[in-house]
Amino acid sequence: MKKNLLFEIGVEDLPAKNLNIFSEKIKKNIEDSFLNNKINFRSIDNFFTNIRLTFTVNDIEENIKIPKQEIKGPPYDKCFDNEGTPTKTVLGFAKKHKVSVDLLSKKEFENKYYIFYEQPEEITKVKDRLPHILEEALKNVEQQKRMRWGGSKISFIRPIRWLLLFYGDENLSCKICGIQTRNNTFGNKCISNNEIIINNIDEYFINIEKNGVELHQSKRKELINREIKNIIKQNKFDDNIDSSLIDELTNMTEYPHIYLGKFPEKYLDLPDEVLRYVIQDTQKYFLVYRDNKIANFFIGVSNVKVNSIIIKGNERVINPRLDDANFFITKDLASNIFEKKDFLKRVIFHKKLGSMFDKVQRIIEISSYINSQTYRDNKILFKEIAEVCKLDLISNMVVEIPKLQGYIGAYYAKETGLTTVVANGIKDHYSPKNPEDGIPGTVDAQIVSMADKIDTIVGIFLINEKPSGTRDPLAIRRLSYGLIRILLNTKHSLSLTKLVDETQKLISNKLTDLKKNHRAVSDCNEFLTEKLISTFKEDYGLPIDVISSVVGHDKDINPFDMLKKIEAVNLVYLDKSYQGLFTNAKRVSNILKKSNQDFSSIINENLLRESSEKILYNSVKDIDESLKQLLDKRLYEDYLKKLNGLNFYIESFFDEVMINDKEEQIKLNRLSLLALINKNYTKFANIAILSH
Amino acid sequence: MTFQEIIFKLKSFWADNGCISLEPYDYPIGAATFHPSTFLRALGPEPWQAVYAQPCRRPTDGRYGENPNRLQHYFQLQVILKPSPDEIQDLYIESLASIGVHRNKNDIKFIDDNWESPSLGAAGVGWEVWLNGMEISQFTYFQQIGGLDCNPVTGELTYGLERIAMHLQEVDNLYAVKWNNEISYGEIYLQNEEENSKYNFEFVEPKILIKFFEDMEAECIRLLENGLPIPAYDILLQNSHTLNLLDSKQAISSTERQAYILRLRKLSFLIAKKYLENREKINFPLMKNS
C-alpha cells in the first residue's frame, strides 16, 4: 500500500524575500531524510504563502524493509577467553546490534574465523518515523535568522502557530518541535479567522481554496502578472514592467488583488531613481511607464478585495514621501553642495581612518599615482571627479536616503552645470557594485573608482578590521572584486603590490595616530591575491592548478599581467606537443631540489665533456636573447613555445649524461647547467607543478 | 474616531485582555520601549502584561510644525505581553477592529523588520505593520534586552497613534487630527513643536549637556555600585535623551555619537544584570501569577 503525506506548518508572516529558498530547503531536508531512512516515495511538492508552508510527499511505501544481512564482527579468537567466557570485544559487538552473544555465529572469512551476526529482515512502519523526520527537517534550515517566542524551547524563522499532519487518510497526532499536531487549519485569515476541520488530504486543498487561499505560489504569481497586463492594456502604459518585486509580493499574500493608484503629476520632475526608491523600494509598488518614462501611477498588491479606502490610503502615503524628496532636492540645489568641500570634514569615513574630506584628499593622490603608472590620461579629468565624488554625502537627499549616493551627486552636478564626464564620474566611481554591474564608462571614472576602492581596502587592513566570516565592514570583498575587474577589463597592467604600498604610505603619513600594524600590508596582499584567484577561476573559467602556477609564483600582484601569463600557460597546458616541456621542467626541478644547493648558473664551458651537454648548453645560449625579448614584450605563449624547442636536447642530456660524475667539479657544472635551464622554466610560472 | 477615543479603546481592549493599564513614564524617552515597564520587565522569568500610552521625543524629527507628517514629540501606545501568547497576532488584529480598522476591508501587511536598539543592548525579530501602505505599528518579539537573552520572550506591540488617527479621520495633515470633537492635535501641540524645534536645533547648549552627560554617567555607576538599578536606569534615560539633543544640534560627529552610544550600552548591560539580581533576591515575586 502506498500513502500520501500532507504537512502544513502555520506560521506568523514569513519574511517574503527568501521564502522560496526557505521552502525549498525544508523540502530538500524532508527528501534527504526519506532517502537516508530508505523510505521509497515518488515525489515531494512544496507550497507556500505568507503564513503557511505546506509539503506533500506522494506515493510513500508504508513499510521500510531492511533485508536480511550478515554483519561481520571481530576475529573469533578475540571473542572468548580460555574458559570460553565472552570478552568485552564480543559483548560490545552484541550490544551494538542489540542481540545476546548466543545469537552470534562463527564463520570463516578469507581463511580466518570471525564472529557474525545474521540480522533478520526488518520491517518498520514509516508512520513511526515521521514525527522525527519532520522535526529534523525543520530544525536544520541554515542561513536563516531564527527566533524564539513565548516560553517555547524551539526556534524557527517565525513563530509556528499550528501543525497539520495527514498520512494517508489518517490525521497523525504527535508532537513536532514540542507542538501538538491538529486536524484543523485556517483559511485566508484576512477573510475569516475560523478553524477549518480537515478529514483527508484532498479535502485540505479543496477547503483552503474555498476559503480564499491560492496555495500555489506560481498561480499567485501568474495572477499578479495577468492583472498587471490588464491594467497596462486598459491604461495604455508601456508593456514593460520592472518585475523585480513580483516574487516578494507573491510571497507576501495568500491571495493577491491588484489595483492602480495615482500620484500628482508634478512629482514626475523628481529624478527617476528617487521615484523608484520611494515607489518601488519603500512602498513596494510596481512603477509604470508611458513612452519609456515613469508615469504618475503605481500598481499595488492588496491582501483583500480592493476598495476605495485601500486605494486612497495608499495614495495618501506616497504623496508626503514624494513631497519630502522634492523638498530636499530643492533645498540641496539652492545651496550648491559643490561649493562646500569643507563640509566633508564633518562626514566620517571611518572613525579610525578620518573624515570623508581626508579620504577625498587621498583619492586625489592615489588617482594621480594610478594615472602615472598606466592610464596616463592627459585630460586629467579624474582629478575633478575625485574632488567632487563624495560631495553628495552632505546633501539632504543622501542623508535621508543613503542608497542614492552617487546617483544624486550626478544629478546635482548636471543641474549645476558640471561637465557630463564629471557628473557621470560621480555616479560611476562606485561601480562595479556587484557582479552584474558594469565598470565605469570613462578612463577618468575608472581611475577614481580604483583609487577610492584601494583606499578603503588598505585602510581596513591598517586598522586591523580585516573581514572574517560574515563580518566585512565597508564591504571590502566586493570592493576588491570591483577593483580587479576594472583592471582586467581595461587591460591595464598595474602592480597591486606597489599600489597597496603607495596607499599604505599615504594613509599612514596622514593619520599619525594609526597604530603600527606590521602584518597589514602582507595580509592585504594575500587578501587581494585570494580575490584575484577566484576571479580567474569563476569569471575566466581557468583551471586552478594553472592559476596557482602563476599566482603562487609571482611576488608582484599585477592582475592583467597575471591573466596574460595564465592564459599563455593554459593554452599550452593541454596541448600534447608541449607535454615534454612540463615533464622536463618537473624533472629538472626535482633534481635541483634533491641536490639541495643553490647554483650560480654560471657554466664553465671547459668542463662540459659530453657532446649532448655541450649541445644543450649551446642551444640554451642560442635562445637566451630571444627569450628575454619575448618576456619584455609579454609574449608569454611564444616564450613557452621557444622553451618547448629545448625538449630534445634536454632529453638527450638525461639519456646520455650521468650528472653524478666522480669529479665534484663536473657534477657541479652539470647541475649549474640545469639551474640555468630552470631559471628559464620558472621565469613567470612554476610550470613544473603542471606535469601530468 | 477622535485621537483620545483611539487611546481609550485600545487601552480598554488590552485591559479586557488581561493587561494592567499603566501611565506614561515621567522622563523624556525616544520610544515606549524605554519605559521601565518594557525594558526592565522584559528581563527575567516573571510574567508581565501591560498597556500604556507614552509620549516620545525624537529631537531630530522636529520640523518647526511645518511638515504635516513629522513631529519631535508624538505618542505611542505600547502593549507588552510576557510571555508572548500564541494568539498574539490575532489579538492585535482584533485590537485594530476595536477602533474600526477591519482586516477584510483594509490591506494589512506584516513586513518583516528586525529591530535593534544599540544603546539598550536590545534586539528583536518582528514586523512593521502596514495599513494600506502606511506603517502603523511595530510588532516585535524581544530576543535580547540589556545584552541578556530573553526567556520567556516578550511580545511588544507599538501603535503609532497619529498615523492611525490620520487614517481613521482621513486627514493628510496630522495637526488637523481631532483630539476630541472640539479641539485639534495642532491646537494642543503646534506651539510645542515650534518652540521645541527651535530649542533642539538652535538653542541646545552643548557644553552644558556634555557636562551633564558625564556627571550623570558617573552618578549612574555610583548607583549601580550601591545596588540601585532602578534609579540608575532613570539616569540612563536622561543621558539617552541628552545624546539625542546633542545630535539634533549637530554638536557631535557621527563617530562621537557612536562612542556615546557605546557608553550607554555599557550602562544598560550593567543595569539589566543588577536589576535581575535584585529580582532574584526577592524570589521573582510575580512568578505567583504564572
Description:
Chain A is an alpha+beta fold. Helix content of chain A is 48%, strand content 14%. A 5-stranded antiparallel beta sheet of chain A has the order 2-3-1-9-10, with helices on one face. In chain A, strands 5-7-6 form a 3-stranded antiparallel beta sheet, covered by helices on one side. In chain A, β16 (286-290) and β17 form a beta hairpin. Chain A starts with a strand and ends in an 11-residue tail after the last helix. The model of chain A has no long low-confidence stretch (mean pLDDT 91). Chain B folds into 2 domains: 3-200, BirA Bifunctional Protein, domain 2 (2-Layer Sandwich); 204-289, Methane Monooxygenase Hydroxylase, Chain G, domain 1 (Up-down Bundle), CATH 1.20.58.180. In chain B, 43% of the residues lie in helices and 21% in strands. Chain B is built from 8 helices and 9 strands. In chain B, β7 and β8 form a beta hairpin.
- Please give the order of strands in the largest beta sheet of chain A: 2-3-1-9-10
Structural domains of chain A: how many: 5
Label the structural class of chain B: alpha+beta
Largest sheet features of chain B: 9 strands, mixed
Q: Could you tell me the strand content of chain A as a percent range? A: 5-15%
Shape category of chain B: globular
Going by helix content, strand content and strand pairing, the class of chain A is alpha+beta
Number of strands of chain A: 19
- Fraction in helix of chain A: 40-55%
What's the oligomerization state? heterodimer
CATH class of the largest domain in chain B: Alpha Beta
Second-tier CATH architecture of the largest domain in chain B: 2-Layer Sandwich
Biggest interface pair, counts: A-B, 44 and 43 residues
If you compute it from the alpha carbons, what radius of gyration of chain B comes out, rounded to the nearest whole angstrom?
19 Å
Beta-strand content bin of chain B: 15-25%
Number of domains of chain B: 2
